[in-house]
Specification:
Oligomer: single chain
Strand content: 5-15%
Distance between the termini: 46 Å
Radius of gyration: 17 Å
Largest sheet: 4 strands, mixed
Number of strands: 4
Helix content: 40-55%
Number of helices: 12
Amino acid sequence: MRAEWNKRVPDKVTLDDRMRRTFKSRRDSVVNGMSTRKLIETYPLLTNADWILEEMKLFFLKEAYSDGDLTAKILEKTWSSALCLLQPQKIPIDIQKIMGNQKLGWMVGIPTIFNERFDSFLIVDKDPKNVYPTMKYDSLQQKWTIHFDGESVEGVRSFHHALATMMATYWVFNIKFAPSSAGSLNFVAAFLAQIPDAKYSPGVRTKVSSIVD
């Protein structure tokens, strides 16, 4: 698999077939405690956002994320209700600058809904200091990446792509939600990712209902 992945133009069909055929053994290895480094050495595709999301699809047999109109429509439909829950004064200035269109970017401020810190959810122009999957935005290069446990996931195209990839990384690598961002992460899982086996607290359910209803 590594040889194919390292080709100048890897064959996606071949890689997809190999990932599907090794899915069960890979999951057994993860659940039984294979380290992040060993897993990535064995399956280097898991350093790429699209392949992380493909792996997520094998879990739930549905799209974990779409770059198309669906995500935008969900966010535009709910943004006015969501803004009522946000606490803009608590959003760090460097993060406010990347919100852009509020109708699509309001999810940047999710931690303020739960009075949580941003450092295990989203950071800007800094190196992550925790082991949990965290979105990073490099404002100079205008580049998104996901960082966790000393590793990084590349090929992230936008904030919404980063958000989905970060969530999928938790499942793919069998990582428990960061305690300092648990409310925010459960909210994303319930509202946007609609992950079927996620267990949501009453507080998260109430906030999701207040936006969707």
